[in-house]
Amino acid sequence: MKIEKLKENKISDVYCCIGERKELYKDEIAESERYLKEKIKHGWLTYAVYADLGKPVGMAILLPSSDPLSPVVGEDIYYFHCLDINKEMRRRGYAKRLIDTIIKDVKALGGKGLAVDSFSEYWMSDSFFAKAGFETIKKFPYHSLLLKKISQDAKVEYIEMPYRGDLPKSGIQVDIQYWVSCPSMLNNYRKVKRLVKKLEPQAKIRERIIDTKKDVKKWGGSGIFVNGKSVSAGPISEEELKKAINEAKAK
Known about the structure:
Elements: E1 2-5, H1 26-39, E2 45-50, E3 56-64, E4 72-73, E5 77-85, H2 94-108, E6 113-118, H3 126-131, E7 135-139, E8 144-149, E9 157-158, E10 173-178, H4 183-199, E11 204-209, H5 213-219, E12 223-226, E13 229-232, H6 238-250
Parallel strand pairs: 5-6, 10-11
Antiparallel strand pairs: 1-2, 2-3, 3-5, 4-9, 6-8, 7-8, 10-12, 12-13
């Protein structure tokens, strides 16, 4: 097993977690690869875990807390955008080894700690990170913020990024806002666009990339927003979207 900090020429290996969906998501993967190649020039960190035969079986993407897209603030903190090990390769110590490597690299960069936003057992399990030495800083209704201190004075806070754009005077408005770093989320968000047209043909749909400090200040964070209200930051089902549209129509 080998862990490698990826450079531009090997950035595609970070999307090993897509697995059998690679062909389905090929356009989104290509778009995300171009995006990440630019981001690593600005301090983002990307890693791949390789099995014995050189096949990538795990990955991680982190961004510094100074980045305008970071949902956390803290001096010299690095935030896990994602960490995943292919299902068939889990429980072999790969994720723990990956975190140990990242800690070593971040410490060398002068980082004080690693933060992660955990959605319980659904995504980036808080129980796993707790075992890896992360402490829970704050619990929210649907997620928890955890921190691994590299320096004892490490501190971190979570920043809510609600929708900040304009609201419709009447009717239904769906704002689709996203980063370009995750092919799965790109695919899901664009699927939402088709679902909106099916569920509410007269709805106004606005799709935009959130990439800069100016974008965040004007529009808010990533997610699907129906008349300004967040539906979900993660994958969205037709049922969730229908419920959000009906609630907005009832007001």
